[in-house]
Automatic annotation (TrEMBL):
<feature type="transmembrane region" description="Helical">
    <location>
        <begin position="78"/>
        <end position="98"/>
    </location>
</feature>
<feature type="transmembrane region" description="Helical">
    <location>
        <begin position="183"/>
        <end position="205"/>
    </location>
</feature>
<dbReference type="Pfam" id="PF04240">
    <property type="entry name" value="Caroten_synth"/>
</dbReference>
<dbReference type="InterPro" id="IPR053540">
    <property type="entry name" value="BABR_hydratase"/>
</dbReference>
<keyword id="KW-0812">Transmembrane</keyword>
<feature type="transmembrane region" description="Helical">
    <location>
        <begin position="52"/>
        <end position="71"/>
    </location>
</feature>
<keyword id="KW-0472">Membrane</keyword>
<dbReference type="InterPro" id="IPR007354">
    <property type="entry name" value="CruF-like"/>
</dbReference>
<protein>
    <submittedName>
        <fullName>Carotene biosynthesis associated membrane protein</fullName>
    </submittedName>
</protein>
<feature type="transmembrane region" description="Helical">
    <location>
        <begin position="118"/>
        <end position="139"/>
    </location>
</feature>
<feature type="transmembrane region" description="Helical">
    <location>
        <begin position="241"/>
        <end position="259"/>
    </location>
</feature>
<feature type="transmembrane region" description="Helical">
    <location>
        <begin position="21"/>
        <end position="40"/>
    </location>
</feature>
<dbReference type="InterPro" id="IPR017823">
    <property type="entry name" value="CruF"/>
</dbReference>
<keyword id="KW-1133">Transmembrane helix</keyword>
Length: 280
């Protein structure tokens, strides 16, 4: 079976199971994670690493399948560079406290690299950047032709997503900061670190993706941002449970941004087709 046939089968799988992937999985995931944190889930299943990694991978499937046809040799080089960078900066962060602040993983989120960083880190990290990138491209329209608008807008969106993610993860006990933090247990240094790590990641994604091909793919692939739907449901619900009002409101705002893109019908958006965004 060649690559195109595999991509076609994966598209069919995601298209026929959009609601299950984008809604059912994050709802069940939120319940299991909260049940694990509160002691309602029996010990063998509480924060079970394989379940956590599998559930995350399933929710990422629409994004992965959406981007897969766009990955040429340049894209593969970009992904390899980004993977090495992600592992490197996370290992430095865990062992030195730079650039995010002094923190440690308290739960094994799947197999751990060198016993300190999740081996599945790209599955957790890349989608924050790529979902932000795609959402900004859709919302900015023709303004996305401007490199500063595209990159700074994406970096701002990445920070907004982390303002939702980190408080929820700290509340669950995924990781903790040694000295806590004013923002629901998260220090300002974490977000300063995200400016650095996010900026590099955004630049790499921008370098590796062809603008015109990306727009055409977005126009023909309604499920491409379904992973962001999962993010809003999962982390919005978790923050709401813990009483984290600001992150919950930010999750709602992300959801409203998604609604403006009309990503969840089956029609092709003709306003996207035929546009050129030559930002390589």
């Amino acid at each position: 079976m060649d690559r195109r046939a595999i991509e076609g089968r994966l598209e069919t799988l995601v298209s026929e199971n959009r609601f299950t992937i984008a809604v059912v999985f994050p709802v069940v995931g939120a319940l299991l994670l909260l049940g694990s944190a509160e002691g309602w889930v029996p010990e063998p299943l509480a924060f079970q690493p394989t379940m956590v990694l599998f559930g995350t991978a399933v929710m990422r499937l629409p994004l992965i399948v959406g981007v897969l046809p766009l990955l040429d040799r340049r894209g593969a080089i970009g992904l390899l560079a980004l993977t090495g960078y992600a592992y490197g900066i996370e290992l430095v962060g865990v062992h030195t406290g730079l650039p995010y602040g002094d923190f440690a993983y308290l739960i094994e989120l799947g197999p751990m690299l060198f016993g300190s960083v999740p081996l599945g880190l790209p599955v957790f990290f890349f989608p924050l950047v790529l979902n932000s990138y795609l959402l900004v491209v859709l919302l900015a329209g023709d303004r996305a032709r401007s490199t500063p608008v595209r990159l700074l807008g994406t970096l701002g969106m990445v920070l907004a997503m982390d303002l939702v993610l980190d408080p929820g993860a700290v509340g669950l006990g995924f990781w903790a900061y040694a000295e806590g933090g004013a923002y629901y247990g998260v220090p300002a240094s974490n977000y300063a670190g995200w400016v650095l790590s996010g900026a590099v990641s955004v630049w790499i994604f921008d370098w590796m993706l062809d603008g015109t091909a990306l727009l055409d793919r977005l126009a023909r692939t309604p499920f491409m941002l379904d992973d962001l739907v999962s993010f809003v449901i999962l982390w919005g619900g978790i923050n709401l449970y813990f009483g984290h009002l600001v992150p919950a409101i930010l999750a709602v705002l992300l959801g409203l941004g998604l609604a403006r893109t009309d990503r969840f019908d089956t029609a092709i958006r003709p306003t996207l087709l035929g546009r050129r965004l030559d930002w390589r």
